[in-house]
Amino acid sequence: MSANQISSTRNRTERAIVTAAVRVWVRDRAATLPQVAEAAEVGRTTLHRYFPERDGLLRAANEHALEAIGGAIAEADPDRGHPLDAMRRVIAALASASDAIMFVFGDQSRVRDAAPEPDLPTPDDPVIGLIRRGQAEGVFDDQLTAEWIQQVLWGVTYTAFEQVERGTLPKFDVAATVTRTLERGVTTTAGVRPEPEPKA
After folding, report:
1. CATH code at 16?
2. Same domain, 94 and 175
3. How many C-beta neighbours within 10 Å does residue 103 have?
4. What's the half-sphere exposure (Cβ side, CA atoms, 13 Å) at 148?
5. Whole-model pTM over 0.85
6. Which of 11, 30, 189, 200 has the most CB atoms lying inside 10 A of its own CB?
């Protein structure tokens, strides 16, 4: 076996372990390394050879999950087309990264650990960029900050995945449900009270 083949095998094995860790820990944060090894279909010895400590695998799983989320957003191409269409593509893409989102946002310490240092420049956030573009074009509410709208997006998406796990929302309805909630809010036109007439 050549050096390239060995390296490729190692990369596939490591990726299988990390992917399994995300999948297992999303559903049971107390799951053991042997349980992760079983889900990855590798032996315990093999897992320990790649990740001797649980913390090391946790860090690798966190990085993998963040990359999966970033990759899903990038594939949605949020810079292209009408902001509403772009946001719908982003939502659909996020629906395909449910395990990664549940893993990262289910534990706020992981979100904090993943945040850049205050003194370091923050890379451009494509979702924030999309929201600001939509606000500039009059599509999204410019009375709200882009950061607030993004947090609402994450919160509604995460809640939808929770409902899927509980069996109260079909997985194929996630994108449509999140999109409807963001675009329409929680009231119907009939349920919106008219603005009061100004007093003379």
Report:
1. 1.10.10
2. yes
3. 27
4. 7
5. no
6. 11
